[in-house]
Amino acid sequence: MRPKIKPRRRGLRITVWSLVTVLVMTVGLTGVVLWQNSYDIDEQRVTIRHGGHTLHGVLALPRDGRKRHGLVVYVHGDGPTDATHDGGYQPMWEANAKAGYASLSWDKPGVGGAPGNWLEQSMDDRAEEAAAAIAWARARTDIDGDRIGLWGASQAGWVLPKIAAKTPVRFVIAVSPAINWLRQGRYNLLAQLRADGATAARTRAEITRSDTVRRLLKHRASFDEYVRTMGGDADGMTPGRWGFISRNYTADATEDLRALRGIPVLLALAGHDINVDTADTERVYRETLDPGRALTVKRYPDAAHSLVKQSIERSDLATTMTALFSPRSLFADGYLDEQRRFLSGLDHGAHARD
Questions:
Q1: Fewer CB atoms inside 10 Å of the end CB: C or N, the chain?
Q2: What is the pLDDT of residues 100-131, one digit of tens each?
Q3: Exposed/middle/buried for residue 83 (C-beta within 10 Å: 0-12, 13-18, 19+)
Q4: Is the distance from CB of 250 to CB of 184 less than 8 angstroms?
């Protein structure tokens, strides 16, 4: 006759097996996260000298055995962005690598210990910075200087054509680029108010506030004058941010875009963009660049401004979990493949010569 297990021993066994199960699940989930966040690229930390400063960058190289590669130079949008955009660039770098292209990006000045302050830059300053990075890349033996192009998102729309006017580029990938700073700001304000379900009274008040800010900018008001005019309420504005806006609010890419004529351009636009008026962007790009027939426009109906799926972006939890367990799935369906195909189609002959 089989002896009965004492309740105490049975409870101990349950506890032990519960701990083992949790441990196995933890190890398994950790393995999935590590696997999903491993990319088929070799990343190198690099330093680039520019204007007496050092840019802290990352060069992501394909693992394809070729001695030389084309290069995609990344131009950030707004905000304090590091070289990898907190890892958000890496799925794109992997897509570039599949097409035989390396990727280069760097911390904005003042980010991650880099010298300087990005809020003190103009769009021309940013273009000079990128041109210096391209010159650095052209001096490398593992980069094909004739196959260097640009990728830029949002605010980079004012920087990309300025770079092309300073140094030859082979192609441009423009993601949700804005055309005119003031038009973009007004569009964003109204789109956000609609998304918030704002009342007519609140909408009128916000437009009045926006008009006041525009007048202050036009008259080159100081930050202190801005705060006084707003009744002492800075509403999150800082002296540095006010200086950045004052320096750049007249930005307009319309005329600068002529520098991209004849250059292959992939224009990627989101279907749920409350930051940039994509219809206005597409109209200006087509009017300016179509004479050269080098413009490709791709729309992603399920995407938000950053080309992350809108269904994911509107939930912080969904964004975090997807970034951990399936980071390539963050982006709109087809976007990574389209970027790879665009690069692959540029010059098959150049690949064959490597």
A1: N
A2: 999 999 999 999 999 999 999 999 999 999 99
A3: buried
A4: no
Q: What single-letter DSSP state applies at residue 174?
A: E
CATH architecture of the region 42-179+263-353: 3-Layer(aba) Sandwich (3.40)
Query: Residue 267: beta bridge partners?
Result: 174, 297
With contact defined as beta carbons under 8 Å apart, do 175 and 268 qualify? yes
> What is the rounded average pLDDT of the residues 142-167?
97
pTM over 0.85: yes
Please give the biggest Cα pair distance in the chain: 97
| 52-79 pLDDT tens trace | 889 999 999 999 989 999 999 999 999 9
For β-strands 53-62 and 41-50, DSSP reports them as antiparallel
Distances (CA, A) of 190 to 194, 202, 207: 6, 11, 8
**Residues 185-205 as b or e (16 or more Cβ within 10 Å = b):** bbbbbbbebeeeeeeeeeeee
pLDDT in tens, 238-255: 999 999 999 999 999 999
Q: Which of 7-16, 121-130, 218-227 has the lowest mean pLDDT?
A: 7-16
Task: Give the integer Cα–Cα distance in Å for 233 and 152.
Answer: 34
What kind and span of H or E run contains 205? helix 200-218
CA 113, CA 57: separation in Å to the nearest integer? 12
Token representation of residue 322: 């997807």
Answer whether 72's CB lies under 8 Å from 149's CB. Answer: yes
Would you list the domain boundaries of the chain? 7-36, 42-179+263-353, 183-248
Phi-psi label, residue 194: left if phi above 0, alpha if psi -120 to 50, beta otherwise: alpha
Highest mean pLDDT among 52-66, 193-207, 290-304, 334-348: 193-207
